Amino acid sequence: MRHKEFELITTIELAEILGIKAGTLEKSRCTGALGIPFVRIGRLIRYRVCDVEAYLASNLVEHTSATSRNGGGK
């Protein structure tokens, strides 16, 4: 039985899920721009599925005005 908190995916797999380039994830690991936690196992980089799900949930938007921080684009 596999535990969800231990399921790992690669940079390429996550890039495909998010619809972005793997290079964007690589840069984000250095800058923290996306804020997705990752696991380093020796030279390997992996992402926990539970962290990816949490990232997606924290970036869920119900409507476009919810993304504006300045009162609806004024």
What features would you describe in this structure?
With 74 residues, the chain is α+β, with helices and mostly antiparallel strands. It has a single domain, classed as Arc Repressor Mutant, subunit A, CATH 1.10.10. The protein contains three helices and three strands, in the order βααββα. The protein has helices at 11-18, 22-31, 49-58, and strands at residues 8-9, 39-41, 44-48. It has a three-stranded antiparallel sheet. The longest helix is centred in the middle third of the chain and has 10 residues, at 22-31. The chain starts with 7 loop residues before the first strand and ends in a 16-residue tail after the last helix. 4% of the residues are buried. The model has no long low-confidence stretch (mean pLDDT 88).
Contiguous runs where pLDDT drops below 50 for at least 5 residues: none
Spatial strand order of the main sheet: 1-3-2
Number of helices: 3
Main beta sheet: strand number and arrangement?
3 strands, antiparallel
Keywords:
74 residues; Arc Repressor Mutant, subunit A; 3 strands; 14% strand; globular
Q: In brief, what are we looking at here?
A:
Helix content is 38%, strand content 14%. The chain is built from 3 helices and 3 strands, in the order βααββα.
